[in-house]
Amino acid sequence: STVGDVVYIRLFKNPVVILNSVQGAHDLLDKKSAIYSGRPRTVLYDEMCHGVGLWLKFMKYSERWKKHRKWAQNVFNDKVALRSYLPLQQREVYMLLSVLRDTPGVEGKDGAGS
């Protein structure tokens, strides 16, 4: 099935908007960022991460968020740092593939599967 440029879902009773095009993201997040850049309040998550640093996707849009985002971009754009994530990424992919292989009703495009 095909989805549009903007998809709305509810995730754990919270509204989530997914932007599937660069133009849609630019229009909503750059041109109207003050309206659409808010984050849901997550009390339990905030408590669990206190003192460790909050993940960007759960931080409220603010000057602090901008600083954290800039820091994170610098880290993730560093080629040495990116290479260091490869073993973790491979392990997670193997785990996902294992779960998909062992899940009844999950089939590949060729029709093979459980």
From TrEMBL:
The keyword Metal-binding applies. SUPFAM superfamilies: Cytochrome P450. Coiled coil: none annotated. One of its GO terms (molecular function) is oxidoreductase activity, acting on paired donors, with incorporation or reduction of molecular oxygen. InterPro entries: Cyt_P450, Cyt_P450_sf, Cytochrome_P450_fung. The keyword DNA repair does not apply. GO terms for cellular component: membrane. This is Cytochrome P450.
